[in-house]
Hints:
By secondary structure, the protein is of the alpha+beta class.
Amino acid sequence: MLTDMNRALTRLKQKEGWKVERTDERTLQFLFGPVTFSHTLMFAPNQQSAYPLDKERFKEALN
């Protein structure tokens, strides 16, 4: 599910002019166990890098 969300966000951001740098795997520990998913490092048109999936889904957990 998270990898599918990453693909959708990647396509959306590419339409906004973002460029793909690479795709990485990440594992997060939840109460029910570890979850591994793919997320894509991208560069915005202003050259700022970000993982859009992380910013969308894990704002509170990653701070």
